[in-house]
Amino acid sequence: MYENYSRQALPSKEYRALLGSAVCVFNSNNSFIIENILSHDDNNKYSWYNLIDGPSGELALSIKETITKKSGTKIASLFNEVVGMRNRIIHSFQVTYKDEQVLATKKKNGEQSIITEVYLYDFIEKNEALSILLNDFRGD
Known about the structure:
mainly alpha; three-stranded antiparallel β-sheet; 5 helices
């Protein structure tokens, strides 16, 4: 598929909408995680600037010292899972699959897979579950 703003082949509008939604829900949760870290940082060890500038995967220690310390491992575990899924999306490459442009990913072991609409919906749903957990935690 082509658009008037690009002569490059693009995935369908629906697929691109899911990709955009996936990025947005993750970014929202990344900010929400940081908000919760800062609001439960009893020693004022962390700053918004340092947390927002770092890679999402490197939030693990600050999550452990704040959120996990007060609520258990559920939030940290789910955040780690969505970070891994997000990495597969962000570090993907475009391919033609079943006559459509889509994204594919390669794991470190060399295994390649298509980032399907099902994968994107699953990612969005996991981010929704994470958002609910973060909202409940914030309410404590």
